[in-house]
Amino acid sequence: MTNETSRTWWQQEIFYQIYPASFKDSNNDGIGDLPGITVELPKLKELGVTTIWLSPVYKSPMVDNGYDIADYQAIDPRFGTMADFDQLMATAKDLGIKVVMDLVVNHTSDQHRWFQAALKDPASPYRDFYIFRQGHDGQPPNNWRSNFGAGSSWTAVPGEPNTYYHHVFSPQQPDLNWENPKLRKAIYSMINWWLAKGLAGFRVDAITFIKKDQDFASITLDGSDGLGKVKRKTENRPGLDQFLKELNAATFKPANAVTIGEASGVAYDQLGDFIGENGYFSMIFDFHYADIDVASGSEWFKQTNWTPKMLGEAIAKSQLAIQKVGWGANFLENHDQPRSLSKYIREPQYRNAIGAKALALLYFGLRGCPFIYQGQELGMVNAVRTNIDQYNDLSAHDNYRRALAEGYSEDVALTSVNRRSRDNARTPYPWDDSQNGGFNAGHEPWLPLAKQAAGVNWQAEHDDPNSVWTFYQTLCRLRNASPLRADLIEGDFAPLDAHNDNVIAYARGQHVQIFVNLSSKSAAVDLPAGHVWLNNYPDVGTSLQPYQAILIEVK
Question: Which positions fall inside the Glycosyl hydrolase family 13 catalytic domain (predicted)?
């Protein structure tokens, strides 16, 4: 059996995440849509993408931008119709592109018919599809703080004194009760319905939250609001494994589907259970190094003073832990993260093509599947806002209020939100330099475009052989079809000591070595002899220039 045939199919994929509302607006209503995605698929094919991941397009009131689902088997009208979805699937198939969708099954929208039925009648069978509990002396059942909303994870049920429902996230996102086998069966049926439509798999949202400690006991306070983090009783808790094993056996495994778990709270010594040979998922995202800039991924106002050495060590620790048991999902950006140029490149003068290419090579060469988030391949930066009211993001408002409550000034609170808000990655995609960046024909977009440097748009970069987009295209070609393919896909990861704290270096397999200077200072490095396949500077010298990144094939 050859290496090509022995690889699991999804290990060879290059994923591209699309945030539909901000990708392409085909009908000029200010919101991106499915027909807009369909018409631009050939450009993703040209880039080298093999699988697209669609953020939610299900019917939703959009309290959390589609992660509050009102109907799992309907397309939200703002994105189009089910016929539009089917056309997207057909076009993608013709282009050889697979499609993955977001799967959100920790919670639904409060507008879902299940929840509405549960509210209407306490005796309804749907009551047990969710988590309802009695309060204590007019107070919620416990002191858990929700991840969103700067308040309790319990909301009072209208018209039912002393009755509350639970939500890890916003009050408009009631948690499903996975303890109920009827609920689980309904979820599995829905998943299999989508797989039968031809989906290649799912990115599985917030999946480590589906198991709650059934004592629902209060916890130690950790803030001035008298509450404690809900995740301490709801994230990766004992018993989760039984749900995930059943989920996989009933849906993903029979379909040979790819699954990418958003599995926060998973320790490295648990990775075998999640992504091992008999793991629950194909791969999971590791947020340990993605959140290196903050003390907590949900408390942006607590910044850290990270260094390139710390980042390199975190990446190596992640890669080595994953390599022992399974496969990785490597990313710089997604719909919940800020733009990587703004996060990892501290000097504004290098938040340009040089910095973007350095970051691209740093992560694209890692062992596992690379995930590109829309606009990342252009080198987009954060969108700076001057007032909290300019933010659409729920968690931006939550973090701003939390920061003020913890005693931070308005300026510090807003600065932390500007650095970290999810709106940073959700601004419309700039296709060209026309009105609204070619996102549509002129209607005001649902979210203002982020101000970018001249030439940061698809058209300009597509036509420029030295652009960030072209650099990403080259990275895709090296992985998809080049003499380095075997090393880049299945070669082991091994950290290299570049003898400079600002340089992150590693080897892949027998022939690939990558060196990235993640600072504004030159770095003397003893580079190996070999063929330079990629370099974000014109030349290679005895020192790496500021933010220089090089891929060398060692003979």
Answer: 17-426
What Å distances lie between residue 144 and 138, 141, 295, 398, CA to CA? 16, 9, 20, 15
Buried b vs exposed e over 146-174: b needs ≥16 C-beta within 10 Å? bbbbbbbbbbbbeeeeebbbbbbbbbbbb
- Cα 38 from Cα 286, distance rounded (Å): 30
Strands, E assignment, 232-378 = 258-261, 283-285, 294-296, 299-303, 327-331, 369-373
Q: Which of 40, 110, 205, 286 is flagged as catalytic?
A: 205
Are β-strands 283-285 and 258-261 bridged in parallel, bridged antiparallel, or unpaired?
Answer: parallel
Instruction: Give the pair of three-digit tokens for residue 162.
Output: 């002393």
Q: Is 169 in contact with 154 (CB distance < 8 Å)?
A: no
89-102 burial, b at 16+ Cβ within 10 Å, e below that, comes to bebbeeeebbbbbb
- φ, ψ at 130 (rounded to 5°): -125, 180
Q: Which of 235, 262, 291, 487 is catalytic?
A: 262
Cβ–Cβ under 8 Å, residues 457 and 433: yes
Q: Give the DSSP letter of residue 507.
A: E
CB atoms within 10 A of CB 182: 12
Of the chain, the percentage scoring pLDDT greater than 90 comes to: 91
Supply the pTM of this predicted model: 0.95
Question: Domains in the chain, start-ordered, CATH in brackets?
Answer: 3-107+182-214+229-381+429-476 (3.20.20.80), 113-166 (3.90.400.10), 490-553 (2.60.40.1180)
Whether residue 299 lies in the annotated active site: no
Summarize pLDDT for 152-198 with one digit per residue, the tens. Answer: 999 999 999 999 999 999 999 999 999 999 999 999 999 999 999 99
pLDDT class of 224 with cuts at 50, 70, 90:
confident
Q: What is the DSSP letter of 367?
A: S
Least Cα distance to 493 among 349, 321, 334 occurs for 321
CB 306 within 8 Å of CB 288: no
**In three state form, how does the secondary structure of 65-80 look?**
CCCCCCEEEEECCCCC
Cα Rg of the chain, angstroms: 23
Phi-psi region of 74 (alpha: psi -120 to 50; beta: other; left: phi over 0): beta
| Coil/strand/helix, residue 142 | coil
Which of the four pLDDT bands, split at 50, 70 and 90, describes residue 295? confident
What size, in residues, is the chain? 555
Average pLDDT of the chain, as a whole number: 96
Tens of pLDDT, residues 326-358: 999 999 999 999 999 999 999 999 999 999 999
205: annotated active-site residue: yes
